[in-house]
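Example for tutorial group B:
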């Protein structure tokens, strides 16, 4: 545990991310719970402790370089074992997070971590994004989504959840999907404002965070019925 703690602190320093000791402690507890549970439940394909720290925790924390003080209500769709949303909820105890994944066992794992770490600012849902939207339309300042689907598909899931002027900050590994997302951005009244490029501090792997702003209300016909956004992307 001590070795992993030093490794985590070292990567935080290299990535120029500041984090208080008690938050680092909680994140390490979360990583330990994930490591143990992952031995008999498939929560993540990354099984090495150090790799979990870099590819899940540091990668999620890159968002702290972009998130603003006045952003208070966050939604993370397809959060899996809690990335990036659960990590950020530990980093920002004063902000509210809704973590969503349609696979119940993943949400049950997240609920276990919330209880063990006594996190007060996180709620969860195991509904699909296309169902959950029915009572959560235009309710969030910021939307997060990592590794779920192609950009034009997740735009249709996520933009309807945002308040006007809210930001969607999807994490991507390259820029390939931007060009073909033009129509989705237009139809959903959203605009690409910035492209942030990072490198992970140990592997040097490329990481991209897009900043997409919702300009106007989304037409109530989006997102289309469950499954349609993925089958027939905008
Ligand atoms: C590859 S995992 C990524 C998990 C996590 N965000 C990460 O980066 O480690 C994608 C997750 O998205 C969830 N998912 C896919 N489509 C969804 C939808 N329409 N609504 C809710 N969850 C969805 C899947 O159940 C899966 O757990």
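The residue assignment follows.
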């Amino acid at each position: 545990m001590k070795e992993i703690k030093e490794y985590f602190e070292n990567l935080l320093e290299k990535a120029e991310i500041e984090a208080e000791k008690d938050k680092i402690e909680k994140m390490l507890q979360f990583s330990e719970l994930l490591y143990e549970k992952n031995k008999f439940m498939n929560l993540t394909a990354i099984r090495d402790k150090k790799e979990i720290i870099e590819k899940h925790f540091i990668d999620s924390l890159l968002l702290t370089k972009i998130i603003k003080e006045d952003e208070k209500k966050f939604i993370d769709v397809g959060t899996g074992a809690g990335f990036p949303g659960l990590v950020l909820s530990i980093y920002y105890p004063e902000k509210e997070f809704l973590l969503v994944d349609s696979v119940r066992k993943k949400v049950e794992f997240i609920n276990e971590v919330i209880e063990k770490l006594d996190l007060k600012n996180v709620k969860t849902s195991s509904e699909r994004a296309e169902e959950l939207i029915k009572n959560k339309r235009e309710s969030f300042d910021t939307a997060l989504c990592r590794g779920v689907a192609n950009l034009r598909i997740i735009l249709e899931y996520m933009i309807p959840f945002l308040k006007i002027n809210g930001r969607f900050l999807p994490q991507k590994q390259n820029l390939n999907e931007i060009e073909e997302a033009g129509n989705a951005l237009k139809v959903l009244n959203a605009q690409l404002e910035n492209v942030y490029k990072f490198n992970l501090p140990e592997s040097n792997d490329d990481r991209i965070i897009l900043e997409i702003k919702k300009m106007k209300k989304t037409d109530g016909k989006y997102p289309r019925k469950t499954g349609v956004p993925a089958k027939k992307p905008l």
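The longest helix spans residues 21-37. Compare this with the pattern of hydrophobic and polar residues in the output above.
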